[in-house]
Every structure is written in structure tokens, then in C-alpha cells.
Design brief:
Number of helices: 0
Distance between the termini: 13 Å
Strand content: 35-45%
Strand order of the largest sheet: 2-1-9-13-11
Number of strands: 14
Structural class: mainly beta
Oligomer: single chain
Largest sheet: 5 strands, antiparallel
Length: about 240
């Protein structure tokens, strides 16, 4: 049986089938993020963002190549952020050992995977950094997907993920979402992502494959944003 599950922080399970997910706040739980700013704290919460769950590591968008990690206010290059600091761990499991390929991640409106989230601009980067030290260079994304500096080329294998915006958004609305920017993730990373390599070409088989994701969001207008979800698709053999 094939299963995709989501984890955050220190192995906290996100019960996505029950409406649980990540909530983005300016600092303390319930504190609003200013329009045009990015979140300063990430919590596990319910679908409405009203129930406080565990706080998890936060990676706040700083510029096209770096993020502000909890406890490191000066900002860190994306390639230097260890996997264990990722706010989101996507995990695929199967009863028998398989390889994974064509792994794609979208941000959507929780109704239709082809429609972008409503009222939120999102930046996403895959971390490939199993070493726990921030002074070691990893091999993950060096630019945030959704940033205007990203031309849509996947650094791992040259595949074009798309620099264009979803057709439902304005030409200047840079964000991951819908059919516009779809984020490609590593081939067959195996348990704990140990076999990601450069993100392309791994054919190792395993009963578990893990991806580690930095995600940062900014509201485009005032008010809670609940039409916001994450969708993952992949092939396994």
C-alpha cells in the first residue's frame, strides 16, 4: 500500500486527512502576518488556524537565495540549511521497496490542484542537506521557487518547472501555485533523504522516501487565508 504523509518539527505528524496543517503567524500563535511580509513563526494547527498545536522550525523568506531560520536572525543561504530545520517533511511509504520519480509539489486553493491558493504569495525550496551543520554546503535549491529571480529551471536536472505565473494571476504575482509554478522534488531520496545526491538520477529503492521543504508565505491582503493547501504527486516503480 502506498501512502503520503506529512511531518513537521521534531517528528510531529500533520493529520492532513483531519484538516490539520501548518499555520503561519508573525510571531506568537494567532498573531497576524503583515500584508507583504513573510511569517515569523510556524505552528501545526487546524484547517481554520484557530487551534494551537506544536511550534515547529520556521524558515522565513529573506531574499531570493536565503531564509531566516529560527534562532539564526541574520539569514542563511538555502543550500546551508540542514534538513532537520525544515518546517515540512513529506514522506512516501510503500509495503515493498520502490523508487520514486517525477515528484511534483503544488500550492493550491484546497479545492482544485490546478488553482492557486487565494490571497497568499508563497516561496518554496527543497533542502538537500543531511549534515546538521550550517557551515556545510548542501545540494538543494539555491533559489526560492516563486521568487522573481527564479527562471523556472530546475537546478537538479534542467527541467523547466515554470517561471510563468498561473493564468489566473497577474503577470507580476510571483508565487508557487496552481498550474504556474510547480516545484519538482528529488528522485528516489530514500529514508531520511540520504540518497538525494544532487536531486536527479537516484534510482535507489526503499520502503520510505523523504523530502525536506522550506516554505514561506506572505498575505496579499488583510484577513485569514484558509483557501490554502499543498498537493504532492509522484510516480513509483
Amino acid at each position: 500500500m502506498a501512502t503520503i504523509a506529512f511531518y513537521a518539527g521534531d517528528g510531529h505528524t500533520i493529520e492532513h486527512t483531519q484538516g490539520s496543517g501548518l499555520g503561519f503567524f508573525s510571531g506568537a500563535f494567532g498573531s497576524s502576518v503583515e500584508v507583504g511580509a513573510f511569517q515569523g513563526a510556524t505552528f501545526i494547527t487546524d484547517s481554520s488556524g484557530s487551534t494551537e498545536g506544536p511550534v515547529v522550525d520556521n524558515i522565513k523568506y529573506k531574499d531570493s537565495q536565503s531564509g531566516i531560520v529560527t534562532g539564526a536572525p541574520d539569514g542563511t543561504g538555502l543550500k546551508y540549511i540542514p534538513n532537520y530545520r525544515a518546517p515540512l517533511n513529506i514522506r512516501f511509504t510503500h509495503a515493498s521497496a520502490v523508487k520514486t520519480q517525477n515528484v511534483r509539489m503544488r500550492i493550491f486553493d484546497r479545492t482544485n490542484a490546478d488553482y492557486p491558493a487565494s490571497g497568499v504569495s508563497t516561496r518554496v525550496a527543497e533542502l538537500i542537506h543531511p549534515n546538521n551543520t550550517m557551515t556545510v554546503l548542501g545540494s538543494g535549491d539555491g533559489l526560492w521557487w516563486g521568487d522573481s529571480a527564479h527562471d523556472g529551471t530546475d537546478v537538479h536536472d534542467g527541467m523547466t518547472g515554470g517561471a510563468n505565473q498561473d493564468v489566473r494571476l497577474g503577470a507580476s504575482a510571483y508565487t508557487v501555485g496552481g498550474t504556474g509554478i510547480i516545484v519538482p522534488l528529488s528522485d528516489s531520496p530514500a529514508t531520511s533523504g540520504e540518497h538525494c545526491g544532487t536531486g536527479s538520477g537516484s534510482v535507489i529503492t526503499d520502503t520510505q522516501h523523504d523530502w525536506f521543504i522550506a516554505i514561506s508565505a506572505s498575505p496579499d491582503s488583510i484577513g485569514s487565508k484558509t483557501s490554502y493547501g499543498l498537493y504532492v504527486s509522484l510516480e513509483y516503480l
